[in-house]
């Protein structure tokens, strides 16, 4: 059967079928997701660019399964600002059904090479909707990419290509979003913390050794490029960015961290699940906390790699060993898991109650990761 096109998916009947089959509760999010690919395809025909962010995630899940929708299009390109503007002008001229609007920020952006657009379109459900396209232009470093010649979306083969970050590069890119207050999320975007934590945790768990090596090797150069483009004194650096990431993740057990599972962050977690995840994906609070710990653990591994790149293989094996330990823990009966958890934590100040009130008392994976972080930090 000949592959179909992205616009073939954008009709009322197809979207309702997808919502039912893949168990998404918000049909408008499905249409936005399809529009993301439609617009990305139009852009890629006109200029070289690489997809980053949530749009990459469907390519690194189980074949044919999509359990997490993305919203908006994030691209990086070597092209300059004028070339990006010319590309978007051409897209607007070619299809009168799309209105392309330059996204003017409410306050000046601290990023020199970011340009944003709103794409307005008529929804198949009657209303006018929009998606956002963000370009990081003037990319002057090499990042690992993967070329997809035929996209499979919602179990349909499409005549649509995409150049995306590799899984390792995606992890390296995503983790910098948690450099809160630096090159990461600003306070008004803290609502996005759960989706980034979900993506990072999911991708690390699905990584093989080559993916993990690539994540370590890509983080430094990619982060340095992003830090250079921020207008800030003193300038941000790879070191300061990593410190901001570990401070945010390490602080979520504290009272004042934006990641603390108080009501505000619990609301963010629930909103993410309702808006972006299939009902097939039961992403409970304990899993979210586990992903925070795993992300923190990996950030500490990145720090060790930056200190001594020659230890890369040993650090990758360290991560692989912890992931194996977590997988084995999931197979244990509840009583045995609890006994092992208590034994692991009893040597710490506060004993097995050290995580009480923040992490699930019954989650052995939380204890494994918590101890792993403490060892990497040299605090036990």
Overview of the molecule:
- The protein is α+β, with helices and mostly antiparallel strands and 380 residues long.
- 47% of the residues lie in helices and 11% in strands.
- It contains 12 helices and 9 strands.
- The longest helix has 23 residues, at 285-307.
- The radius of gyration is 21 Å and the shape is globular.
- It starts with 11 loop residues before the first helix and ends with a helix.
Estimated structural class: alpha+beta
> Largest sheet, if any?
5 strands, mixed
Q: What is the count of distinct domains?
A: 2
DSSP helix fraction = 40-55%
* Secondary-structure element series: HHEEHEEEEEEEHHHHHHHHH
Low-confidence parts: none
Shape, per Cα inertia axes: globular
The total count of strands amounts to: 9
CA radius of gyration is: 21 Å
Short description:
The chain has 2 domains: 1-165, Beta Polymerase, domain 2; 167-380, no CATH class. The chain is globular, with a radius of gyration of 21 Å.
Defining traits:
380 residues, alpha+beta, Beta Polymerase, domain 2, 5-stranded mixed sheet
How would the blueprint of this fold be written?
Elements (H helix, E strand, L loop, with lengths): L11 H11 L4 H18 L5 E3 L20 E4 L4 H14 L4 E4 L11 E9 L5 E9 L8 E4 L2 E3 L2 E3 L3 E4 L1 H8 L18 H13 L3 H20 L9 H13 L12 H14 L8 H23 L4 H19 L3 H12 L18 H14 L3
Parallel strand pairs: 2-5
Antiparallel strand pairs: 1-2, 3-4, 4-5, 6-9, 7-8
